[in-house]
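Q: How do we represent a protein-ligand complex in a form that can be generated token by token?
A: Start from the inputs.
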Amino acid sequence: MEFSSKLLEDAVYEMSQLPGIGKRTALRLVLHLLKQPEQRTELLSNALSQLRNSVNFCSSCHNISDTELCEICSNSKRDETLVCVVEDIRDVMAIENTSQYNGLYHVLGGKISPMEGVGPQDLNIVSLIKRVKEGTVNELIFALSSTMEGDTTNFYIYRQLEGLAVTTSTIARGISIGDELEYADEVTLGRSILNRVPFESSIKAS
Ligand SMILES: [Zn+2]
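Then emit the structure tokens for the protein with zinc ion bound:
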């Protein structure tokens, strides 16, 4: 792609570094921004740099939060004996949208994936086991996508929990294998949390 301006080329290059954005889409977005009032671009760049500079993760569940403890963890109406283990923040948002779940979360920050060089030490697993050892958690609900990486991660955590007084369950799969949680519709996802099954039986089934 030939550019008539280095400034334009740089902006398109940076935009095209985003997932799912090719060079052509990047160019379209950049030209769109140029057509908008200058203030629009400033609002966008300010929001991004403020997010980057001030982003905070909940000290308990690792959800993105503006406060030390996120709104979910600090809400006394939530059931703190239930913790739903998810891959990332999008899953928290998807499950919250179902309005079917009243427990807390634990955001792992990814899945164990030897192919991508992600090991257990790269994820928020130690803090999860610590939460369980503190004794308030009665049940962990695994809600990772049912890919090989998701299954490996569930099983790894399950093994770490041996000897601890906690029940483990996994969300029922109305969702087909390999589907990511965020793409499941709210009704299906809500139902799969309510109809969760003991984790042990999910291992035997597979
Ligand atoms: Zn939290």
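The chain has two domains: 6-54, 64-205. The radius of gyration is 20 Å.
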